[in-house]
């Protein structure tokens, strides 16, 4: 060890934390390539900042915090286009449903069946426009606040709610189509 | 058509408020409009029930542990990269 004042040993990071960080980021970004890049960037950023690590939190907590920032940075970098939100496949003029939302076979007591339903939902998620998927990912990265999501993606609050609304309508329709 | 009647028939608005209400506080008039609408609209009640369930599933989807691991090759490269940076 070169530096006695260091509270962390970078030589052990990969062995101890790489898989954990990878598992964490993978469920946020839905892309293995991007997930790998982000893990690598996290370690590189941690090397630069390691003298500031005081050991007040665990190394894993510290690294995870860096990773979260990297995830948000990656969204910013993508400069996601705002998809057309004006044309409406779900509602007619005056806001009537174009077609009735049908019952979806959701069995609230059957866990296994719902696991299958979860897989269908994951497929449906991947069909959403990139920006919408990103909003959802951010929403569930430790419950990012609406304000943080909007500022991260340069969205107005009004656009944000429209995207949430449209995404949910799309997911519901997709489930109805593939699960009913 | 009166404003209230118009509002009561607006499923687009109602489903918007359902979604917003799950993550933010609706104001009083939004709440009342939504309740009035839901009272008379079974389609939107169906939507509301399903949307809540989808919300739960989304939470599970994003938070379920992923078992995928990095390959040894990738980890070895990463280890080398760190060593290299440390020795700079």
How would you characterize this protein structure?
The complex is a heterodimer of chains A (180) and B (88). Chain A is 64% helix and 0% strand. Chain A is mainly alpha-helical. Chain A folds into two domains: 10-78, Rna Polymerase Sigma Factor, Chain: A; 93-179, Arc Repressor Mutant, subunit A (Orthogonal Bundle), CATH 1.10.10. In chain A, helix 1 runs antiparallel to helix 2 (32-49), helix 4 (111-126) packs across helix 7 (157-179) and helix 5 (130-140) packs across helix 7. Chain B is an all-alpha fold and 88 residues long. Chain B has one domain (3-86). The model of chain B is unreliable at 1-5 (pLDDT under 50). The interface between A and B is large, with 55 and 43 residues.
Class of the largest domain in chain A, according to the CATH hierarchy? Answer: Mainly Alpha
Helical residue percent band of chain A? 55-70%
Count of individual beta strands of chain B? 0
Radius of gyration of chain A: 20 Å
Tally of separate helices of chain A: 7
Residue stretches of chain B low in confidence (pLDDT < 50, at least 5 long) are 1-5
**CATH-scheme architecture of the largest domain in chain A:** Orthogonal Bundle
Largest sheet of chain B: none
Q: Count the strands of chain A? A: 0
Oligomer: heterodimer
Helix-strand topology string of chain B: HHHHH
Helix-strand pattern of chain A: HHHHHHH
Number of helices in the DSSP assignment of chain B: 5
Question: Which fold name is given in CATH as the topology of the largest domain in chain A?
Answer: Arc Repressor Mutant, subunit A
The first-to-last residue Cα distance of chain A is 60 Å
Structural class of chain A: mainly alpha
Tags for this model:
heterodimer; A: 180 residues; Rna Polymerase Sigma Factor, Chain: A; Arc Repressor Mutant, subunit A; 64% helix; B: 88 residues; mainly alpha; 5 helices; disordered N terminus
Layout of helices and strands, plus pairs?
The complex is a heterodimer of chains A (180) and B (88).
Chain A: H1 10-29, H2 32-49, H3 59-78, H4 111-126, H5 130-140, H6 146-153, H7 157-179
Chain B: H1 3-8, H2 11-23, H3 28-40, H4 42-63, H5 72-86
Helix pairs in contact in B: 2-3, 2-4
């Amino acid at each position: 060890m070169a530096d006695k004042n260091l509270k962390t040993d970078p030589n052990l990071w990969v062995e101890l934390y790489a898989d954990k960080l990878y598992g964490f980021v993978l469920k946020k970004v839905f892309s293995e390539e991007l997930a790998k890049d982000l893990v690598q960037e996290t370690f590189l950023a941690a090397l630069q900042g390691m003298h500031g690590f005081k050991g007040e939190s665990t190394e894993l907590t510290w690294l995870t915090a860096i990773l979260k920032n990297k995830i948000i940075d990656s969204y910013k970098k993508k400069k996601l286009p705002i998809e057309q939100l004006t044309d409406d496949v779900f509602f007619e003029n005056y806001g009537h449903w174009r077609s009735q939302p049908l019952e979806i076979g959701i069995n609230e007591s059957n866990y296994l069946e719902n696991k299958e339903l979860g897989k269908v939902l994951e497929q449906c998620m991947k069909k959403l426009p990139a920006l919408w998927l990103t909003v959802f990912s951010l929403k569930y990265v430790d419950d990012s606040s609406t304000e943080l999501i909007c500022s991260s993606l340069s969205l107005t609050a009004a656009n944000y709610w429209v995207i949430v609304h449209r995404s949910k309508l799309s997911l519901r329709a997709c489930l109805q189509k593939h699960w009913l | 058509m009166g404003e209230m009647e118009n509002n009561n028939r607006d499923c687009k608005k109602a489903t918007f408020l359902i979604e917003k209400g799950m993550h933010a506080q609706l104001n009083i008039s939004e709440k009342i409009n939504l309740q009035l609408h839901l009272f008379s609209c079974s389609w939107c009640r169906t939507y509301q029930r399903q949307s809540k369930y989808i919300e739960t599933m989304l939470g599970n989807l994003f938070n379920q542990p992923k078992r995928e691991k990095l390959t040894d090759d990738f980890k070895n490269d990463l280890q080398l990269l760190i060593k290299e940076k440390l020795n700079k």
